[in-house]
Specification:
Length: about 110
């Protein structure tokens, strides 16, 4: 019915994508590519790492326990090996030669 004069109408946007949106699309695509590449690198690193055999533990060949002692737990530290017995003792041995260093009574 009532048409406004053509000078008051907003101009339609020019065809095509504005340069700001093109730049934004490029950034989003680059980010997606970097994320995909990162996931591939992480997956490859996990596969390579999990296929390697673990390093062997350096423990003495023989550990001589006191008469009648039963082992409940075993742990290793730098240069020492600890054996927890059922009798409530912690026996600390040298990791190289297996000699008894210390006895600790657990109360």
């Amino acid at each position: 019915m009532f048409d406004a004069p053509s000078s008051n109408r907003p101009e339609p946007p020019p065809p095509g994508t504005p340069p700001e949106l093109r730049f934004l699309k490029l950034l989003v695509a680059a980010l997606a590519g970097v994320m995909i590449l990162g996931l591939v690198v992480i997956a490859a690193a996990l596969v390579i790492r999990l296929q390697q055999a673990p390093a062997p533990l350096a423990v003495p060949e023989v550990i001589e326990l006191p008469e009648g002692a039963r082992v409940e737990a075993f742990t290793r530290g730098r240069g020492w090996v600890a054996v927890v017995t059922a009798e409530g003792e912690i026996l600390i041995y040298d990791a190289e030669d297996g000699t008894l260093r210390q006895r600790v009574a657990v109360e």
